Each structure stands twice: as C-alpha cells, then as structure tokens.
C-alpha cells in the first residue's frame, strides 16, 4: 500500500484540514485527496467516523473543503470527511480535456471498460478499495462507521457506490444527484464513452435502476436528498423523481427535499450541509 505525502495542512475549527498525494495502483498515476480531521481525532485518541464526499463535474479534491463550510459541523459532530479528486489527471489520453463533462474532472465514479479510458479511469476501485483502505491505515478513522455523500455527478456516485457495495457504507445522502444517468445527456455521454453501448452495463451504475432491483430497503434508516428548484439542470439531467419512485416501489425510506430559489451550486450546499452531516452522525456516532 502506498504512503501518503502531506501537501498542506490548515488548522480549522479545532481540527485540521489536510491535503495529501499518493501513488495510486488503481489509477496508475498520483492521486490527491483532502481530509478534515475533527478535534476528537486529534486530541481524544480514538478513531472517529468518516464520511466520503464525492464532488461534481469539473471539481477537485479541494472544492468541497473550500466552498461547503462543512468543517464547523464536522468538528461539532466528531466526523472526519475525506474528499477525493473526481478523475485521473496527467494521463496521455487524447481528448481527455476536450469536454467539461467527460474525461478530466468527470470520472463518474465507475471503472471504465472501454479503451483508452479503461487504462486509468478506474474510479470505483480507487474510491471503494484503494482510498478506503489507505485512509483506514494512515488516519485515525473508523472504517466500520463510514458514510458516503456527494453532489451532482458525485451524488450519482454516492448513491450508486452505496448500493453496489452493501455493508461498506452505513449512511448515504446526496445534493442534486444525477439520479437516473441512463436517461440524461450527461449520463448517456459518460456511459457510452466509458462503458460502451450495452445499456445493461449502464444499469449497473444507475442509482434508479439499482434501487428498482432491490428486494428490500438497503438503507432502512433512510436516504436524504436535497434538490434546489431553481437548479437549471433539474429538468433535463437530474430526475430525482425517478429515484424517489424506485425507492417507493421497494419500501426504501427517502426524503427528497425540494427548495424554492436554490440553484445547483455551493451556496445551495452550504445552506443544507449541516443537515447532511447530522443525518450521517445519527447513523455513525455511537
């Protein structure tokens, strides 16, 4: 397992915000991630619950840490927050930066099967296996009390990884997730490029399709989703109602909270991030 190179650290609400780099076996290139460690992890001598936050299109490991205002709530609740990057960087893949919604900054949290993307775009393995084990080994976090959440593309990632890896994450939530990617332009572009034309393969990475196949509620304590009604992507890209309907069919409790006036950005996330951390703390803090 690779070692961590500390890039920077910053005192924050009694805890510390750090950024690391490491050599990734899954990706085949260096990867960077952020972590907020609350004061309980630094001074209490005990491992703390950990949340994995997956960011949206064009974002990096820094975006949530800088823009969301989550650290004050994580400090109060005793939660660590890990923020991985959204894709490999520094590859030689032609066209990797031609589109803002595919390639660099747009890994969609899956393992690509189509060349040339399959060489490095192995984000599901990276998040759920390599990074998961890495932070558990090197940081004072308790992987038996892990949750996952995310925004937009990262909301898609949080929902699908939670459903595809039962038992790994005890809690899940999302901000404005791409909830039915097989039926929206962002998802169709990403899935055709990374996974090919087989729509059965697409369904394995579509939260609505995965939930519709469940035989019982995978998260009986509930899933929290917040969606702004002034979000310009809501009509064409996000489809929270499809996920909501799939949850109803299998008896999965889900709270899809719709908010007048809020858009797709981080002012929206700032407004409700405390509720999300509280949601996770209720399932993770013993």
Strand count: 9
Q: Radius of gyration, rounded? A: 18 Å
Q: Output the helix-strand order.
A: EEEHEHHEHEHEHHHEHHEH
State the helical fraction: 25-40%
Using brief descriptors, characterize the structure shown.
286 residues, alpha/beta, 23% strand, globular
Q: What does this protein structure show overall?
A:
This protein has eleven helices and nine strands. With 286 residues, it is of the alpha/beta class. Strands 1-2-3-5-4-6-7-8-9 form a nine-stranded mixed sheet, sandwiched between helices. It starts with a strand and ends with a helix.
Helix and strand arrangement:
Blueprint: E1 5-12, E2 15-23, E3 30-37, H1 39-43, E4 48-54, H2 63-67, H3 71-77, E5 80-84, H4 123-138, E6 141-151, H5 153-164, E7 171-175, H6 185-195, H7 199-203, H8 207-212, E8 223-228, H9 234-238, H10 240-250, E9 254-259, H11 266-284
Parallel strand pairs: 4-5, 4-6, 6-7, 7-8, 8-9
Antiparallel strand pairs: 1-2, 2-3, 3-5
């Amino acid at each position: 397992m690779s070692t961590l190179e500390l890039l920077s650290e910053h005192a924050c609400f009694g805890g510390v915000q750090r950024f690391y780099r490491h050599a990734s076996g899954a990706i085949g290139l260096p990867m960077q991630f952020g972590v907020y460690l609350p004061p309980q992890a630094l001074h209490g001598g005990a491992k703390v619950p950990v949340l994995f936050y997956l960011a949206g299109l064009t974002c990096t490991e820094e975006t949530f840490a800088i823009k969301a205002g989550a650290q004050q709530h994580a400090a109060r609740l005793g939660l660590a927050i890990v923020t991985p990057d959204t894709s490999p960087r520094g590859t030689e893949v032609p066209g990797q930066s031609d589109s803002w919604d595919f390639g660099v900054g747009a890994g969609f949290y899956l393992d690509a099967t189509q060349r040339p993307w399959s060489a490095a775009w192995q984000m599901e393995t990276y998040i759920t296996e390599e990074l998961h084990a890495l932070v558990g080994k090197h940081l004072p976090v308790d992987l038996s009390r892990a949750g996952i959440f995310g925004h937009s593309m990262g909301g898609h990632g949080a929902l699908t990884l939670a459903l595809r890896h039962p038992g790994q994450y005890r809690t899940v939530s999302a901000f404005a997730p791409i909830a039915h990617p097989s039926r929206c332009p962002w998802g169709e572009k990403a899935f055709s490029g990374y996974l090919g034309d087989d729509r059965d393969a697409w369904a394995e990475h579509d939260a609505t399709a995965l939930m519709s196949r469940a035989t019982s509620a995978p998260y009986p304590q509930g899933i929290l989703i917040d969606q702004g009604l002034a979000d310009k992507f809501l009509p064409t890209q996000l489809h929270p109602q499809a996920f909501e309907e799939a949850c109803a069919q299998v008896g999965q409790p889900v709270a899809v909270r719709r908010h007048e006036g809020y858009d797709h950005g981080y002012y929206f996330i700032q407004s409700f991030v405390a509720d999300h951390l509280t949601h996770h703390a209720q399932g993770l803090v013993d």
